[in-house]
Amino acid sequence: MLKRTALYLQDAHPIREGMQYVQYAEQKGFEAVWQAESRLVRDAIVPMAAFAATTERIKVGSGVINNWTRNAALIAATFLTLDDLAPDRVLLGIGAWWDPLAKNVGIDRRKPLQAMREVVESVRRLLKAETVTYHGEFVHLEGVKLDVVHGRTGPRNVPIYIGATGPQMMELAGEIGDGVVLNYLVSPKYNDEAMERLDAGAKRAGRRVEDIDRPQLVVCSMDPDRKRALDGARKLVTQYLAQQPHFAKAIGVSADLLDQIKSVLSWPATEEEIERAMEFVPDEIVQLISASGTPEECRAKVQEYIDHGATCPILYPLGPDVKAMIDAFAVH
After folding, report:
1. Alpha-carbon span 245 to 253, nearest angstrom
2. Where are the domains of the chain?
3. Is 6-222+291-328 a CATH 3.20.20.30 domain?
4. What is the DSSP letter of 66?
5. Tens of pLDDT, residues 59-86
6. Cα 151 versus chain centre, distance
7. How many helices (H) and strands (E) does the chain have?
8. Does residue 159 contact residue 211 with C-beta atoms inside 8 Å?
């Protein structure tokens, strides 16, 4: 049995339904819920507030917001507000976003490592209740403070997790993050290199890799009907291979397969295009990078990610019965 388990929600369910799943996960011993913010569908903050307001113990994290569209001071103020709602239960997950979405809304993601470093460093200082002057290339603060008049004025306990996929961002997470959110749709062996990179970054800061929390997003398509479970995951895998090339690179997908998928997918893809492109993605790829199949198969696959360095699975339910997945991974 896993000692730690978390839930991941995107936009597949109405927010009120998501609230019920989070309450149920809390009852079953889950330690956290992470709310996605990736496509232009659902922002993370509103559902995080809903989850925090209707639970008592479970932690609530952003999985992940990006470091471009909210400035550092606004990020700090937002997470201070969430901490007002759920003291010591809020986790700030932040990532570098992705193209073509960022480019299509006018964001030039240049020097992503430097931009991430500046945002993390400045947000952390603001949440420590410091008065911050910070002049970087991307962050410019002059005597800025979270000017709380009513309520708690001291430092806030909001750990910062960097959502990292590439090796350089992984090293940065090891150097400056309280934790890293390891990505989904990668194989367990991908974690081996991730651990090496995290360790290298940690050593630069005089830390150990064991000091860095390493929760990992894991796609979980669970169904007693194994074929139905695999097809459920195949749809997501197909979309990500086409739209987010860093995923394909991370798992070593062949250029020929990517070309086949992209030949029928536009962006944003239509349902018909996705269905056609799914035919090119074999079961082996689906099983390599997701926990798909029967409950027993899903638990075994999740354990592989733990064995390769993850500290807590963040389970992304794709099957129709979310509560059944929660039950399968209940901590008590």
Report:
1. 10
2. 6-222+291-328, 225-290
3. yes
4. E
5. 999 999 999 999 999 999 999 999 999 9
6. 30
7. 14, 12
8. no
